[in-house]
Description:
The structure is a single chain. The chain is α/β, with parallel strands linked by helices. It has one domain: Rossmann fold (3-Layer(aba) Sandwich). The chain contains nine helices and twelve strands. It has a six-stranded mixed beta sheet with strand order 8-9-10-5-11-12, with helices on both faces. A four-stranded antiparallel beta sheet has the order 4-3-6-7, covered by helices on one side. A two-stranded antiparallel sheet has the order 1-2. α3 (123-133) crosses α4, α3 packs parallel to α5 and α4 (138-151) runs antiparallel to α5. The longest helix has 14 residues, at 138-151.
Amino acid sequence: MDLLLCSRLGRPRCLCRRLDRPVNESTAPAVRLAGLTFAYPDGTGALRGVDLDIARGERVAILGPNGAGKSTLMLHLNGVLSATSGEVYIGGTRVDRTTVRAVRRRVGVVFQDPDDQLFMPTVEQDVAFGPVNFGMRGEDLAENVRFALAAVGMTDRADRSPARLSLGERRRAALATVLACRPEVLVLDEPAANLDPVARRELAEILLTLPTTLVLVTHDLPYAQRICERAVILDSGRIVADGPIDEILADAQLLAAHRLS
Length: 261
């Protein structure tokens, strides 16, 4: 097993393990990207040999300027996109056509626009939609819906139309639609965008209580620092920095070099 050294201006920043084979499911990291490369059909390269491990229970911010490849990386985690080359593992399971349905239950993605995930007449029906599609029925379904609504503080809004909710409430309802499937990995795309200070705080408090592995894709550096202990900077499809978030965000030269300040 060799090591890939990531550096900036010749300074070591991180050591990322590159694997040629998956490890045992019980000891595997929550997420492992091994040489992940992706190009769109027009030939545009979005990811270039990304190697990344995320431990179980870790909270990691994926940072980077527009066009860095953050959203493309996010969509590989639950098999929406398939790698041009390289591999994605979730808990030791390689993501491919034979495993993608199971992986999508293990990896929940909350998109920036909550309306992408809220389309039923009531919040409760939206929260039940995912578990039902995964075959959950009866008391198991009811228990998971109750759990998800309680986790985001939306129990008293279960019968309300999503159209009558504030943006902050819709974000929490969208989060509940994913939590109801009990994912092992939770991926959030700009969860605090356009929220007022109260809604930002409420959402942060919820995220900090969740026991799942959390991947936060964002431009919002203060919000990322509040929630995550580790930061990864992606630029031009490559990891250029990886380390404790306090250290990463204290490096003004690094942030400026990658259009984050």
